[in-house]
Design goal:
The model has no long low-confidence stretch (mean pLDDT 91). The chain contains 11 helices and 6 strands. β5, α11 and β6 form a beta-alpha-beta unit. It is α/β, with parallel strands linked by helices and 316 residues long.
């Protein structure tokens, strides 16, 4: 039976993230060896993930930085602007474990359910809570969350708040992107900045803020341009890359490295379109609208659809 409180154990943390790093390296090596063109962008993103794990482990070992947990819907460009703060995207471990080992998360989902997490709460939240209850995640000096994308996430996050001693900050995300919605999110971002400064004893560097926002915007422009190229026939990139791109936003939005990988993905799509090459070998039979999220424990379903049925999935 797991503890019913979230704590931190340095040995558990280092072993867990060391294993994630090794699994990431092994999978990237296999992808490079097979030389499947669908893996080119994925391998680039996995390289960034390895660097992110190294930074997190260094931050914990040195003790010189505060660790700020954040949900993936809040990409980290804002958090890079605070002195002595290391952002940690909460969903990355669950995604990577599922990606590398389809059966690797089940026991941690069970741990969360054993302490009362309802069975119909998202497996991402239950798995993350299971990791946390086993003291495998970094210490949380503060947790910042958005009220999206679903009620399941909101319920899961509130359970975590009850089991942690860390201060939590929620950003209420507007449902409609109108002037009223913009005013709402601006209000909550300002509130978040103040709470981070107080709770983590830091200050936001406004020069860094502008720099990281510009990098994040450039990254998104490349990804939007790549997505437009998916409209071409044949479609240049597969569905699996679309999902893995979430990692890129979670860990590297607002960095030069993230922008450069997004540029690589766009340039790769542009090259394939110019050469008339696509993700499907032969004539495309159709395109499947895949409504988010994918089954993260088996992203090979995209390859299977492309290889066996000549159907590619498009992003929604």
């Amino acid at each position: 039976m797991a503890s019913n409180r979230v704590g931190f154990n340095r040995d558990n943390f280092l072993e867990f993230f060391g294993d994630i790093k090794i699994a990431n390296q092994s999978m990237a090596a296999v992808m490079e060896a097979t030389e499947d063109p669908r893996d080119a962008g994925v391998v680039k993103i996995m390289g960034l993930l390895e660097g992110t794990v190294d930074k997190l482990m260094d931050a914990v070992n040195s003790g010189g930085k505060k660790i700020l947990w954040h949900s993936g819907v809040l990409s980290p460009e804002m958090f890079f602007c605070f002195d002595n703060v290391e952002p940690f995207a909460m969903e990355v471990p669950i995604f990577m474990v599922s990606f590398c080992d389809p059966d690797g998360v089940g026991e941690y989902i069970d741990i969360a359910e054993q302490i009362g997490m309802p069975s119909d709460i998202c497996g991402t939240d239950k798995g993350t809570l299971g990791f946390a209850l086993q003291e495998m995640l970094p210490p949380a000096d503060m947790v910042v969350l958005g009220t999206v994308p679903c009620d399941s996430v909101m319920c899961g996050h509130q359970v975590m708040e009850k089991l942690m001693d860390s201060p939590f900050c929620y950003l209420d995300m507007p449902e409609i992107p109108d002037e009223r919605g913009l005013d709402l999110i601006v209000h909550h971002i300002k509130k978040m900045i103040k709470q981070i400064e107080v709770n983590l004893n830091t200050r936001l560097d406004w020069d860094k803020f502008k720099h990281h926002i510009e990098l994040a915007n450039a990254q998104q422009e490349y990804l939007l341009a790549e997505n437009e190229l998916r409209r071409m026939t044949p479609c240049p990139h597969g569905g699996r890359l679309g999902t893995i791109t979430s990692f890129l936003n979670f860990i590297a939005s607002g960095t030069e490295a993230g922008r450069d990988v997004a540029k690589f993905i766009y340039e790769d799509a542009k090259r394939l379109v110019a050469a008339g090459k696509g993700v499907v070998n032969g004539q495309e039979r159709g395109r499947l609208m895949w409504y988010y999220p994918d089954p993260l424990y088996d992203l090979g379903i995209h390859d299977w659809l492309e290889d066996d049925y000549n159907v590619c999935t498009v992003l929604t």
